[in-house]
Every structure is written in structure tokens, then in C-alpha cells.
Amino acid sequence: MADWREKITSVSKTKGTTAPEGAKRAGLGCLGLIIVAVSILTLLITIGLFKSGFVLMGIFTTVFLLICVATAVLLLVPNKRNPL
Questions:
Q1: Each residue of 23-71: pLDDT tens digit?
Q2: Residue pair 84/68 in contact by the 8 Å Cβ criterion
Q3: Closest-CA residue to 64 (of 28, 40, 84)
Q4: Contact 74, 27 (CB under 8 A)
Q5: How many beta carbons lie within 10 A of that of residue 70, not counting itself?
Q6: Is 78 helix (H, G, I), strand (E, B) or coil?
Q7: DSSP structure class, residue 57
């Protein structure tokens, strides 16, 4: 618990120019999970549109779904690989 408080203290002491790597990863992870949730909901909407016969709107939502999935993959897959 003291370690968690220390991390929060170190984040709150920053002046906005830099942030600890852990805070950056946590923020990107939360954003990635939100985009995954939006992607799942968009998938359900897309399926419903195609089943209802709204093909043109289904195509637009499919494009939006692909953008959401690509964004989630880019956010959740680590960019820097540390072989150590």
C-alpha cells in the first residue's frame, strides 16, 4: 500500500512536462480498454444494421469498427520491445 501511495505522490509532484512510465502505461491501457469496449458495441450495432437491411449505414459502421480495432491494437500492443 505504501508503494502505491509513493507512485501516486510521484505522479502528483510532476509539473506536467513529464510523467512516470508506469502512469503513461496505465493511461494508455485504460484508453485502450475503453476503445475495445466501444469496438464491441460497434460490432453489435453493425451486425444489427446488416440484419435489418441498412447496408449503407452498416458499411459506415464497419469502417468505424475497423478504425476502432486498429486504434485499440496500436494502444494495447507495446511499442518498445525490451529484450532484457
A1: 777 787 788 889 889 999 999 999 999 999 999 999 999 999 999 999 8
A2: no
A3: 40
A4: no
A5: 12
A6: coil
A7: H
In contact, 23 and 13? CB cutoff 8 Å: no
At 83, phi and psi to the nearest 5? -70, -10
Let me know if 35 is exposed, middle or buried by CB neighbors in 10 A (0-12, 13-18, 19+): buried
CB 42 within 8 A of CB 68: yes
pTM above 0.90, yes or no: no
How many other CB atoms are there within 10 angstroms of residue 82's CB atom?
5
* Helix ranges, the chain (H): 2-12, 21-52, 55-76
